[in-house]
Write a structure and sequence with these properties.
The complex is a heterodimer. Chain A is α/β, with parallel strands linked by helices. Chain A contains eleven helices and 17 strands. The radius of gyration of chain A is 20 Å and the shape is globular. By secondary structure, chain B is an all-alpha fold. The relative contact order of chain B is 0.04. Classes of the chains: A alpha/beta, B mainly alpha. Bound molecules: zinc ion (2 copies).
Chain lengths: 379, 178
């Protein structure tokens, strides 16, 4: 089968690989119908996530048709078309039973902080991902959710990560009616978080990025104010000024480790890998939220060492919430939103790329060429 | 021997005022912790069926066993594999765990190129880096970047090949430091 393969920082290719096999009685094999390249794939692509092994296949956003099931799979049958959440979750452990499917304790031997994620390095369990013609889906009774009759496959594939992550970012932010919500990062997740902020009753939504084409997209898609941080001066001062010198009620970090905008952070975090990626967006979030406000983080950072202004978190009495989205928990509600037209995920897709051209797809998305917001691949 | 007071279990309900302010809404993680009550399950220690161990699986020392299910792709091999095995002697709390893994990643890139060559494939690095689209959509910046890299490389080669005397001096200087 054809599959994407990682060869080293900024080097990927499409190759023939052996078909995935059932390794556990709760496994299923799916034929991939749609798969996306995600902003968090770029952390892997750039070589910033430890234990990203050469020869791995990425891809945690995919939907597919079940072609084979293991002996303990009871909730799926061959021929079912399923949304596959990016988290691999057992549904039985301490954390799954709290609805924390993104923190499952039975899907990743290599680390305890993060659960298993498809195609997301050995630090997230060493699974092959869905940027391939076929993929192995463990715990098939738990994660995969049947695609409702009539749902567009392009909508369905964005329910694997972008929509739930954007939605959970707004949910964790504890938005109160009429709150001012600032979102750092106008990538697909940031744009979705900005749009979902309205669903929780926000009174004003501001999005900040450095690419004008993304800001323009966010203005239209998320009905929000959009500013380029290279034009507004210090973004923290700008947000204070525009909120009567109080600060935003809520700030969402939808950027993560690849943040631009601060030379020191870029050098120590992204180039030398001495901290868990550039912490620029977290700095801005902590410093621009009001005292007693909430910072919600869904941007991905690497492990352990980070230089963040924790002193200001104390002094300002902040609540910080952060997590991988628990896709499975959110899917029923989000499917409703898509079916009612409240959310329109496929509106984010700007590029369709054949799997054979995966290297070009990664380059286009990472270098932000051709006004790319979200690329989808059809194997 | 006297019982260590610190290790004597305390019944919290005996503590004056225990739980008087236990409104879950005061908990910043609410409602996450309240979503399902783990203790209500009669078999909370139940684990899923274990996947048979067919490949070498490195595991965090912060857990007693392998997770019931795991990925089986790219087991540790060669020099990079040896470095990874060392890294997994330390906990996720340590630089000693994460930095060697990043080093192993870089070593494996070289191993990957050698492996390609051994199997008769010359890696097409231009294509793997997706330079075709960069050329198509971002030509001017791309040419500038490539020219800069070429100039720096040429400059470095000239510098390295000029004057053995200077190199010899630096080597002695290094030795003196230790
Ligand atoms: Zn994603
Ligand atoms: Zn679990």
């Amino acid at each position: 089968m054809l599959a994407m393969e990682y060869r080293g920082p900024k080097r990927v290719r499409a190759v023939q690989k052996p078909m995935p096999e059932i390794k556990h009685p709760q496994d299923a094999i799916v034929r991939v119908l749609r798969t996306c390249i995600c902003g968090s794939d770029l952390h892997l692509y750039n070589g910033n996530v430890p234990d990203t092994r050469v020869g791995s296949t990425f891809g945690h956003e995919f939907i597919g048709e079940v072609v084979e099931i293991g002996s303990e799979v009871t909730k799926l049958k061959t021929g079912d078309r399923v949304i596959v959440p990016f988290n691999i979750a057992c549904g039985e452990c301490h954390f799954c039973r709290q609805g924390m499917f993104g923190n499952c304790h039975e899907s990743n031997t290599e680390a305890t902080a993060v659960g298993g994620i498809f195609g997301y390095s050995h630090t997230a369990g060493g699974y092959d991902g869905g940027q391939a013609e076929f993929a192995r889906v463990p715990y098939a009774n738990v994660g995969p959710t049947i695609i409702p009759e009539g749902m567009d496959l392009d909508d369905a594939v964005l329910l694997t990560d972008v929509v739930p992550t954007g939605y959970q970012a707004a949910e964790m932010a504890g938005i109160q009616p009429n709150d001012t919500v600032v979102v750092f990062g106008a990538g697909p997740v940031g744009i979705m978080a900005a749009r979902c902020a309205w669903l929780f009753g926000a009174g004003r939504v501001i999005i900040i990025d450095k690419e004008d084409y993304r800001l323009e997209f966010a203005r239209n898609y998320s009905y929000c104010e959009a500013y380029n941080f290279e034009e507004i001066g210090d973004p923290v001062v700008f947000i204070k000024k525009t909120t009567d010198w109080i600060g935003a009620d809520v700030v969402i970090d939808a950027v993560g480790a690849e943040a631009a905008g601060n030379a020191m952070q870029t050098i120590t975090g992204r180039k030398l890998l001495l901290q868990a990626g550039s912490a620029t967006a977290v700095h801005w979030a902590i410093n621009s939220v009001k005292k007693g406000g909430v910072v919600s983080i869904v941007g991905v950072y690497g492990p352990t060492d980070n230089l963040i202004p924790i002193g200001n978190v104390l002094n300002k009495g902040l609540t910080i919430r952060a997590n991988q989205a628990s896709v499975k928990r959110l899917l029923p509600r989000l499917i409703e939103h898509v079916q009612n037209g409240t959310l329109n995920p496929k509106g984010l897709i700007t590029h369709r790329i054949p799997l054979a051209e995966v290297a070009d797809g990664y380059r286009m998305f990472s270098a932000k060429l051709d006004n790319c917001i979200k690329p989808v691949m059809i194997p | 021997m006297e019982t260590n007071v610190i290790n004597t279990p305390i019944d919290p309900k005996q503590i004056p005022g225990w739980g008087v302010d236990a409104d879950p809404k005061n908990d910043p993680t609410y409602p996450m912790r309240a979503r399902m009550n783990v203790t209500q399950d009669p078999d909370s220690k139940h684990r899923p069926t274990l996947q048979p161990l067919e490949v070498e699986k490195l595991r965090s020392i912060e857990r007693p066993n392998v997770s019931a299910v795991y990925g089986t792709t790219v087991p540790p091999m060669g020099l990079s594999g040896a470095i990874r095995r060392l890294a997994f002697k330390y906990s996720e709390n340590r630089y000693r765990h994460w930095l060697p893994l990043i080093v192993a990643d870089r070593v494996q890139v070289v191993e990957g190129i050698l492996d390609d060559l051994v199997h008769g494939t010359v890696p097409n690095i231009w294509a793997e880096k997706g330079y075709d689209v960069e050329w198509k959509h971002n030509r001017t910046a791309f040419i500038t970047k490539m020219a800069t890299i070429a100039a720096l490389t040429a400059g470095t080669i000239v510098w390295l090949s000029s004057g053995n005397k200077e190199k010899g001096f630096r080597r002695r200087d290094n030795q003196r430091r230790y």
